[in-house]
Structure formats: C-alpha cells, structure tokens
Amino acid sequence: MRTTFKQENKHLIMSFEGRLDTAASSQTEEDMRVLYDCEGRDIILDCTNLQYISSSGLRLFLGLLKKARPKGSHVYLTGMNEDLRQVFDETGFTTLFEML
Hints:
The chain is α/β, with parallel strands linked by helices. It contains 3 helices and 5 strands, in the order ββαβαβαβ. It has a single domain, classed as 2-Layer Sandwich (Transcription Regulator spoIIAA).
C-alpha cells in the first residue's frame, strides 16, 4: 500500500495505490494524519489505483470524515472502480461520501 499527498489550491489530495487491508491500515492511518488539519479545505481521496479496501480501510475513511465535517471540510472520493463502488454501496458508505 502506498499513499501520496499533495495540496492543490484549497484542496488536500491523497492518492492510494495497492490494497488497503488490515496489514496496511496502520501505516495508512499514519499517512492520513496530514489530512486531519483540513480547517475548511476540501479533501479528495483518489482511489484510481486502489485495488481493494477492507473494513479497516473503511474505518480510516469514516474516521477522516468525522474529523473533517466539524471543520467545514468536505471529503470527496474519486476514481473508484466497480469493485470498490460495490463495497461502498453494500456498506452504505456511498451515502456518506461525496463522489467526483
């Protein structure tokens, strides 16, 4: 699992590559901490190269959403393949996140 972070204008963007499973969740959570200081800037989670997400990964995304909303930030998901979208649909996460 690899993450890449960048800032563009008022957006914080994190890209994910590989499998976000239980084994990768600890390091990914550490990588995502940079997004917690969003203060009104929108967050884009780029899932274009994310092959798989487990319940541990879903927990990380949900935790980020819970930290971002009170700060006036939106969390957007982009680049989701059919398998990922199905996981988000089945867990109800599609209704929680905004899709680009």
